[in-house]
TrEMBL record:
GO BP terms in the entry: sucrose catabolic process
Cellular component GO terms held in the UniProt record: mitochondrion
A UniProt-annotated Pfam family: Glyco_hydro_100
EC annotation from Swiss-Prot or TrEMBL: 3.2.1.26
Family, as annotated: Belongs to the glycosyl hydrolase 100 family.
Name of this chain's protein: Alkaline/neutral invertase
Key words of the record: Carbohydrate metabolism, Glycosidase, Hydrolase
Cited function: Invertase that cleaves sucrose into glucose and fructose.
InterPro entries for the chain: 6-hairpin_glycosidase_sf, 6hp_glycosidase-like_sf, Glyco_hydro_100
Organism encoding this protein: Escallonia herrerae
Catalytic activity: Hydrolysis of terminal non-reducing beta-D-fructofuranoside residues in beta-D-fructofuranosides
Length: 680
C-alpha cells in the first residue's frame, strides 16, 4: 500500500508556508504562483535565532485533502526520511523573513466528510481496542481556510483600537475577536510595568512552526549558555501561557499547540527498542530548522519531540496527555470554539490518552500507578506509586473527557468506564488520602497486621510513620491530602500542585477543599512566606535526602523540587482561591510575587525555607513564571472567567458505582460511603 500522505499548506503572502509530509509528495493540479516576500516585524526570539532562511518557493495550495493510507502513525511520515531525522518531518519550507502575525492558516480535519473514516470500536470489556476502520488512526486533514494578510479583519467591519499597547505588544486589548467577546478582558485599565514586561517576555518566548505560533519555550535567558532542554516547548509549561493567551483573546496559538502536539502523539516512539503506548504525549518538543534535502539554500521546520528518551533520567511524561486534555477543554470553554474538540482526530487523541490511563493492570487501586518523576517533579523525589499530583490531573482529565467525548455506540463503554473510574477515584482519595487532626490521631492509634476485608488500617500503616514535624504542624481545623499512598506507606509531605488541583477539580469533598485552603492560610509562612509557593513541604533532609533523592545535588533541602518555591504555582493557587471564594488570599500572594519577580528576572524557582533566595540552579526568564503571574492577574481581574476552568462537585458521580453491592452486604459499597463523605 502506498502510505504516502501529502498535506500541503501554503500561502502566497507574505511567504510560502508548506507542510508536506511524505516522501512521494504528490501535489496534484496546483498552480504555484510566485510568493511575495515581505519582511515583517514581530519575530519571536526563536525566529530571530534562526533568521537565516529565505524561502525559495512560491506556493499556494488550497483545499488539499490527504490521501491517507495505512495509519495515523504514517501521517506525514512515511518513507525513509522517517528514520533519518528524529524530527517530525511534516515540516514546511520556511521563510524566516515571514511573520506569524500576518497570516493565519487553519488546518482542520474534515470531520463532516470523514465522519466514518475513524471509528472507535469497543470490545466487550469496553474501550481497550480503539481502532480505525481502514487503518489505524487515520488523521484526515484538509485545509479549512487560509487567511491572508488582507483577509484578516475583512470579515469584521471595524477593528477597534487596542486599548493598551506595550512596545508593540498588545496587552489586554479589546480587538475584534474570533471568540466569546464578552469573555475576554475588555475593560480598559492600568497595566503595571511588571505586567507590561511580562507580556513582552511571554511574546518573546513564542515559538513558531511554519510561520505559525505553536508554543512557548520553557525559558529564554539570553545569558544561559547551556539551556539543556529549556529551549523546548514543554507541554505542562505551556498551560499557563495558553491560559494567558486565551484570557487575552488569543486562541490561535493554543489551537496550533493542541493540533501539533496531537500529531506528535502519533510519532513512532521507541526507547531502546521498546515502544511505549500510542497515546503517550511528549514531555516537550523543539522546532528545528534543517536544510531541505536536495534544495539548495532552503530550509524546513521540523518538530522534534521528546517522549522521555532524551530527558534527564528518562522520565515518562505521564502528565502531558492529562494536561493536553485539560487544556483542550479550557480552549473550548474560553473561546466557545467547540469544533476543535469535536474533530475526529482530536476525539481519537483523547481516546488514545484515556486508553493508556484506563488499561487494566495489576492495580488494586483506582489511582494511576506511575514511576518517579512522571510529572512537574521530573526527578527522583520518592513520588513513584500513586502520587497525588497525577491523581488530581487524572481526575481533571477524566472529567474533561466526559464533557468532550462524543457519545455514540463506539464510545459508550468508554464513557461508562470514565464514570466508574471517576467515582472510584474520588472515593479512594477522599477516604484514604485525607488527613486532619482527627485522622492523624486515628492513625496514631492504628492496630496493624489486620487480615480481613473490614480492616480499619487497610494499608497496614505503622503509626511510627507519622513524622515528627506533622504532629506539631497539623492545624486544629483544616487538613490536606497526603502526597502518596502505597501498602504500608503514607507519604505525609504536603504537595501543593496536587492539593490545588484537588480543589480545582473537586476531587476532594467541598469540606476537604475548604480545609486545604484553610491549612494553606494557616501555614502561610511555610507554604508562601517570601515567595509563593512551596512545591512541597517539608524538604527531605540528611539521610532521607540521600536515600530518597539518591543524593541529588539539585534537590538539596529547600531547593528546586525538594521544598523550593515555584512562582508558577501562583495561577493554580489563584484559581483554587477564586473557586473557594477566597480571592483575597490570591491577591496577597500575587502582590508578594509582583514585588520580586521582575527585579529577580523571573526565576524558575526560589530556595531556602522561606523562599528568600533565587534558586541555586534556577533558570531566569522562565516562561511559566511569567505566564503564571499574568494568568493570576487576569483571573483576579475577571474571576468569572475562572469558572470556565474549575469544576463543582458532581453529585451524579456519587450515585455511580459498579460494584453492585448494597448497604447490607458484607463488603462495603463505596457509593454509600461516598455520600457520607460529603456530610462527614
Ligand atoms: C524542570 C521542571 C519541569 C519543567 C521543566 C521545564 O525540569 O522540573 O517541571 O517542565 O523544568 O521548565
Amino acid at each position: 500500500m502506498n502510505t504516502s500522505t501529502c498535506i500541503a499548506i501554503s500561502t502566497m503572502k507574505p511567504c510560502c508556508i508548506m507542510l508536506v509530509g511524505c516522501r512521494n509528495t504528490l501535489i496534484f493540479g496546483f498552480q504555484f504562483p510566485k510568493c511575495n516576500h515581505t519582511i515583517l516585524n514581530n519575530l519571536s526570539k526563536s525566529q530571530l535565532r534562526h533568521n537565516r532562511v529565505i524561502c525559495g518557493c512560491s506556493d499556494r495550495a488550497l483545499g488539499f485533502r490527504s490521501t491517507i493510507g495505512a495509519s495515523r502513525n504514517g501521517f506525514c511520515g512515511s518513507g525513509s526520511d522517517w528514520g533519518e531525522t528524529r524530527g517530525f518531518r511534516g515540516g514546511c519550507v520556511v521563510d524566516r523573513r515571514g511573520s506569524r502575525g500576518a497570516l493565519g492558516v487553519s488546518v482542520a480535519s474534515d470531520v463532516r466528510h470523514h465522519s466514518t473514516s475513524v471509528e472507535g470500536r469497543v470490545n466487550e470489556k469496553g474501550f481497550e481496542r480503539i481502532y480505525v476502520q481502514g487503518g489505524l488512526n487515520v488523521k484526515p486533514l484538509v485545509i479549512e481556510k487560509v487567511e491572508r494578510e488582507g483577509d484578516v479583519g475583512n470579515e469584521k467591519v471595524e477593528e477597534e483600537e487596542p486599548k493598551v499597547g506595550v512596545n508593540g505588544a498588545n496587552v489586554n486589548v479589546d480587538k475584534s475577536r474570533s471568540f466569546n467577546e464578552e469573555n475576554i478582558l475588555t475593560r480598559e485599565r492600568e497595566v503595571s510595568e511588571t505586567e507590561k514586561e511580562a507580556w513582552d517576555l511571554l511574546r518573546g518566548a513564542v515559538v513558531d512552526y511554519c510561520g505559525n505560533p505553536v508554543g512557548t519555550v520553557a525559558a529564554s535567558d539570553p545569558a544561559d549558555k547551556l539551556p539543556l532542554n529549556y529551549d523546548q516547548v514543554f507541554i505542562r509549561d505551556f498551560v499557563p501561557s495558553a491560559l494567558a493567551f486565551l484570557l487575552n483573546g488569543e486562541g490561535d496559538i493554543v489551537k496550533n499547540f493542541l493540533l501539533h502536539t496531537l500529531q506528535l502523539q502519533s510519532w513512532e516512539k521507541t526507547v531502546d527498542c521498546h515502544s511505549p503506548g500510542q497515546g503517550l504525549m511528549p514531555a516537550s518538543f523543539k522546532v528545528r530548522t534543517v536544510p531541505l534535502e536536495g534544495r539548495n539554500g532552503e530550509f524546513e521546520d521540523v518538530l522534534d519531540p521528546d517522549f522521555g528518551e532524551s530527558a534527564i533520567g528518562r522520565v515518562a511524561p505521564v502528565d502531558s496527555g492529562l494536561w493536553w486534555i485539560i487544556l483542550l477543554r479550557a480552549y473550548g470553554r474560553i473561546t466557545g470554539d467547540y469544533t476543535l474538540q469535536e474533530r475526529v482526530d482530536v476525539q481519537t487523541g483523547i481516546r488514545l490518552i484515556l486508553k493508556l490511563c484506563l488499561t487494566d493492570g495489576f492495580d488494586m487501586f483506582p489511582t494511576l500507578l506511575v514511576t518517579d518523576g512522571s510529572c512537574m517533579i521530573d526527578r527522583r523525589m520518592g513520588i513513584h506509586g500513586h502520587p497525588l499530583e497525577i491523581q488530581a490531573l487524572f481526575y481533571s482529565a477524566l472529567r474533561s473527557s466526559r464533557e468532550m467525548l462524543n457519545v455514540n455506540d463506539a464510545t459508550k463503554n468508554l464513557v461508562a468506564a470514565i464514570n466508574n473510574r471517576l467515582s472510584a477515584l474520588s472515593f479512594h482519595i477522599r477516604e484514604y488520602y485525607w488527613v486532619d487532626m482527627k485522622k492523624i490521631n486515628e492513625i496514631y492509634r492504628y492496630k496493624t497486621e489486620e487480615y480481613s476485608t473490614d480492616a480499619i488500617n487497610k494499608f497496614n500503616i505503622y503509626p511510627d510513620q507519622i513524622p515528627y514535624w506533622l504532629v506539631d504542624w497539623i492545624p486544629e481545623t483544616g487538613g490536606y491530602l497526603i502526597g502518596n499512598l502505597q501498602p504500608a506507606h503514607m507519604d505525609f509531605r504536603f504537595f501543593t500542585l496536587g492539593n490545588l488541583w484537588s480543589i480545582i477539580s473537586s476531587l476532594g469533598t467541598p469540606k476537604q477543599n475548604d480545609g486545604i485552603l484553610h491549612l494553606m492560610e494557616d501555614k502561610w509562612d511555610d507554604l508562601v512566606a517570601d515567595m509563593p509557593l512551596k512545591i512541597c513541604y517539608p524538604a527531605l533532609e540528611y539521610e532521607e535526602w540521600r536515600i530518597i533523592t539518591g543524593s541529588d545535588p539539585k534537590n538539596t533541602p529547600w531547593s528546586y523540587h525538594n521544598g523550593g518555591s515555584w512562582p508558577t504555582l501562583l495561577w493554580q493557587f489563584t484559581l483554587a482561591c477564586i473557586k473557594m471564594r477566597r480571592p483575597e488570599l490570591a491577591t496577597k500572594a500575587v502582590a508578594l510575587a509582583e514585588k520580586r519577580l521582575s527585579v529577580d528576572r523571573w526565576p524558575e524557582y526560589y530556595d531556602t525555607r522561606h523562599g528568600r533566595f533565587i534558586g541555586k540552579q534556577s533558570r531566569l526568564f522562565q516562561t511559566w513564571t511569567v505566564a503564571g503571574f499574568l494568568t493570576s492577574k487576569m483571573l483576579l481581574e475577571k474571576p468569572e472567567m475562572a469558572s470556565m476552568l474549575f469544576w463543582e462537585e458532581d453529585f451524579e458521580l456519587l450515585e455511580n458505582c459498579v460494584c453492585s453491592l448494597d448497604k447490607s452486604s458484607r463488603k462495603k459499597c463505596s457509593r454509600f460511603a461516598a455520600r457520607s463523605q460529603l456530610v462527614g
